[in-house]
Amino acid sequence: MGSWEKRNGVDPREKFRLRYYDGDLSVIRLEKKSRRNGLGSKVSAPLSPQEAQSIVDGARGWMAGCGRPLVEELYHKMAVQGLRPKTIVDYTREAFVYAPGNVRVTLDHHLRTGLQCVDFLNPDCVTVPAGDAPAVLEVKWDAFLPDLIRDAVQLAGRRTAPFSKYAACRLYG
């Protein structure tokens, strides 16, 4: 699934991504984000750097019987639907947690893309700014959103709006 599905509100939709944080290649995850009937979910599976690189390179034979259902699902969709890596999405994230309600607040900024490069493990793959992408403040919670947090994130002149970092990066490649 691509960026147009989010813009057009397609439901159900899903996307796969390879992800690591803060340059730490010891923890790479394959993730699948899904949206069905307006509800989002995310599942993930661990990958080694070699496995992640093989997915980027299109060498997927090892995935078929690896014993990780999410990796096997991606294998099937790569083989049948022709899924392949599309772009790099890179950004700086500042994260905060508020224990009551298990509230997670993130501020994502300095969004960058790899243009035609999808080899995200290659240090020579240059990323460039993704246009004039805004800083994105996300607030996620489990059981309830405490008034303290609700009041703190009400910013004058700002509005709640959908924004896809992936879609913003896909504009460039």
Strand content: 25-35%
Order of helices and strands: HEEEHHEEEEHH
Shape: globular
What's the number of helices?
5
Instruction: Measure the end-to-end span.
Output: 15 Å
Radius of gyration: 17 Å
Average pLDDT reading: 88
Structural class from helices and strands?
alpha+beta
Percentage of residues assigned to helices? 10-25%
Low-pLDDT stretches:
none
By DSSP, the count of extended strands is 7
Specify the biggest β-sheet.
Answer: 4 strands, antiparallel
Describe this structure in words.
- By secondary structure, the protein is of the alpha+beta class.
- Helix content is 23%, strand content 31%.
- It has 5 helices and 7 strands.
- It has helices at 3-7, 49-57, 69-81, 147-152, 165-170; strands spanning 13-19, 28-36, 39-47, 89-98, 103-113, 128-129, 136-140.
- Strands 4, 5, 6 and 7 form a 4-stranded antiparallel beta sheet that branches. Strands 1-2-3 form a 3-stranded antiparallel beta sheet.
- The longest helix is centred in the middle third of the chain and has 13 residues, at 69-81.
- The protein is globular and about 50 Å long.
Give the secondary structure arrangement, pairings included.
Layout: H1 3-7, E1 13-19, E2 28-36, E3 39-47, H2 49-57, H3 69-81, E4 89-98, E5 103-113, E6 128-129, E7 136-140, H4 147-152, H5 165-170
Antiparallel strand pairs: 1-2, 2-3, 4-5, 5-6, 5-7
Name its key features.
23% helix; four-stranded antiparallel beta sheet; alpha+beta; 5 helices; single chain; 31% strand; 173 residues; three-stranded antiparallel beta sheet
